[in-house]
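In response to reviewer comment 3 from the previous cycle, which asked for concrete evidence that the modeling workflow produces usable outputs, we include below a single protein chain processed end to end. The sequence was submitted unchanged, and the resulting structure tokens are shown without manual editing.
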Amino acid sequence: MRELDRIHDEVIACRRCPRLVEWRELVAHEKVARFAGWDYWGRPVPGFGDPSAGVMIVGLAPAAHGGNRTGRIFTGDRSGDFLYASMYRVGLANQPTSVSRDDGLRLDGAYVAAVNRCAPPANKPTPTERDNCLPYLEREIEALASLRSLVALGAFAWDGLLRALAALGHAVGSPKPRFGHAAEATIGPYVMVGCFHPSQQNTFTGKLTATMVDDVLRRAVQLAG
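The workflow returned the following structure tokens.
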């Protein structure tokens, strides 16, 4: 637990990427009309969840008016609404909604993080920004002693997890495992499971349904033992 606390404190103080610092703070200052009354977080967003988690769920980065506003990953945006509702249905969360850091949400057996901890312009971190941030993910993986399964929400998260596991000394193999919905890859002591990202682009078009997310999360729970 102590190491996770250290990572948390280091993440929220991070200013490694000038472009992302400028963007996240600009968004927090200008806001949008529907959240004009909010005091935006406007800092990097740390991981969140159960220190005894067997399952880690990894996204791309906080949303500009989601995590960058609320200070908790996948909180206050449509992607988070979709994700946490599924986590509740499969027993990984105590409630189906996530709207703020003090809304009472608790995760059971799960930890949620992202490859990048700052909201990036157009949701596109640069390779350098990705690499600057990956050590936080690597350290979280190591700190979660019971961790066994890793859910990658989208191809960017899949690639980031492969890079993090390789940096931790686990053989990824060649060619690298390819992302796909429900794809699985065993890397060292972990099994990665792919899931389409719960973005509105995917959920509104039916590319990703609630049942599809539920099935992936249930599989991850099964793999975690």
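The helical segments are 2-12, 18-30, 67-70, 78-89, 127-143, 155-167, 200-203, 210-224. We consider this sufficient to address the reviewer's concern, and the full set will be provided in the supplementary archive.
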